[in-house]
Queue: 3 jobs
Job 1
Amino acid sequence: MARFRGPKSKVARRFNEPIFGPSKALKNKPYGPGQHGRSRRRKQSEYAVQLMEKQKAKYTYGVLERQFSNLFDKASRQKGITGTNLLNLLEARLDNTIYRLGISPTRRGARQLVLHKHVTVNGEIVNIPSYSLKVGDKVAVRERSKSLEIVTNSLASYASRRTAWLEWNSEKLEGTFTRTPGREEIPENIQEQLIVELYSK
């Protein structure tokens, strides 16, 4: 399956945000990558700002261009605010939910867990990271995978940071997608209206 395989630190420095998790490179070099990273002060055009916001959302959720475009089309056909619908669709992805539940410390790690068949949805193994969850779906760690070191370590460090729209059963290592989150509950620093404006041109 296709995914971004480039340098994470350079991408994080481009947006000046730790979109792949804590980054030493971002802390040590809080400016854009490349030889002109320190001196680039040129004012960006409206299109450039909108494009950057779309790119940031793509990298944050680990979605490629065609997938993102398809999600936007789906969001625009739904009732409600298109930008919020888009974020809700991204949040409902299986790999993102694994990350939100604390089963994996990163979305990339969550994607690997799904691809390697360590995760079940409603009791059935699902190995598609982009699988879209519905309200009421139960996401769990497969029985034989519950002792994986990456899972136990991640859950231990994540215990105090639960997500409002997901219920977690620590005994069964199972989470439930209870509802669609409100925009104010999604912590990502994404200005979705800029993405809507970009696709509306």
Note: The first strand starts at residue 119 and ends at 121.
Job 2
Amino acid sequence: MKKIIVIALGMALTTLSCSEKKSEKVVIDTKPTVPVIRENGLKIAYYNQDSLKNGFAFYKKMDNLVKNKQIQFQKQLEKKQMDLQSYLVANDELAKKGQLSDLQLQTVQAEAQRREQEIYAFQQNQGGSIEKQTLDLMDKIYKKIEEASKKYCEMHNIDMLLVQASGSQFNYINPTMNVTKEFIGFLNQEEKK
């Protein structure tokens, strides 16, 4: 009987010690283990993208080219629309005076529809062409900036060159890291080569 009591007491102590271990809180280390790239730390800089539009000569040149094409397109479109409007007004006056036969009215309507379709096709074709040219030019600009960014960073031992713009994902960047003026100067210098 003593053996049974000793065994039962041993089991109770074992169960009690196991349950105490289970209730202990496990603390997880959340400190990141990010390796240091260099002993003297990372060199991070940024430039303001909106400033490139005004400061980078190539950007301004391409932007003006696109704007001029858009203005020309708009003028041509407005002329076509005004011509159609003039045609409709002139024939409407003749119709009100009773100077157009039913056959002539049908011809006027058919011509008006043809001109409307022509305007629509012009908008689609020319507008689409200008949009494609704009995208191509923007792609060209961004490739130049990307290539120059790499070169600029390599020259000045910058590990990361960020782009700051309105609506960007960075809430705050320390202004001492701003290299916008210098980077724009570098871009213009590279463009002259």
Note: The radius of gyration is 37 Å.
Job 3
Amino acid sequence: MNILEGAAKTGGKILKSSVENNGNFLFLSAAAGWALASLAQTIGLITNKEIGKEEKKFLVPQEILDGTFNIATYAAVTIPIMKCASKMATKKMPDNKQAIEGARTLAAIAGGVVSSNIITPVLRNKSSVVIKKLMEKKDLTPPPPEIYDGRTYPNFKSKQPLTMQNYINFTRTMQNSGSLKI
């Protein structure tokens, strides 16, 4: 059996399971939707010509991490909830397949709501704090420019950043600058 036949066989089993079990179908389609949405967002960021290379270096990994968090937390939360709901429904109504399916479907919905609206944002925020602290430890401040680059005023005696206060101080040293009001 080659790879394509194996993938088709596995895909057929998943599809058959999904048709027989609405909860599984909901779970798989939500996970696939998040994966495709994250992939589309990442490709959009990569191909957008209006976003600079420096921004892309940050945004592309962030989007990949965000998609990974979404899918991982959805799976980590929803699968145990679905198993628990299925066991509870089986104990209460062992012969009622429709009730068991309904419990699994509701569990898939509840898992999606809890993971995407509560757990994922918390994890994303915590991870961004950790990443920010790691980045702050590195000295990412570029050296001062040797030539005029538009961000510093070229005639300052020492290369000073172009801030309003530095500009006001500079204009005070110039002739006819006494009437400058900002």
Note: The chain has five helices and no strands.
